[in-house]
Sequence to fold (197 residues):
Amino acid sequence: LPGGLKAKLHKASKTPERFQEAIVEVFRLRVPDLFIMDAVLGMEGNGPASPDLRDIGRILAADNGVAMDAVMADMMGLEPGRLRSLQKARELGLGDFDLQNIEILGELEQIPDFKLPPLGGEHHMDNQEIQGLLGAKAGLKPRADPELCTACGECIEHCPVSALSMGNDNIPEVDADTCITCFCCQEMCPEKAMSLQ
Fold:
């Protein structure tokens, strides 16, 4: 999805879990016939604006995107079944994330000490009713570190729901009632100044 459409999808989705499901729904509109993942040089940690680049030295190809994502998740040290996007894809019959059901040609090697982003795309709470009830009171919200923030405004510009504004001290402030916890601000911060608290 181009940047502007991704932001609109974030806003419409309201939660990270729903956003992952929406990505799968967009994917199923026209499932590609061939998938190629360039993992020669990859990002680890919290990207895309401030990634830690890593030499992975792999190229993956598959005729099923769900299977390929499951294999890559396993290589990164993630249990594929914990990823909401893969759960939703399997529910919709788009593929399987169970490595026992995937034919793998070549070596399946874990990437040692791969740094995952905070939350890692995982579906952390199985009980959506409790999560909805707790909402903003118990959830993580982004906060700018005044020692690292340069007041560049990238976080404010990329927030799909305009939940951030520049405070009097030139440090971005989050409106917890507006924030949908998509963490675009953290992903786009070039200084790695946004943390989840």
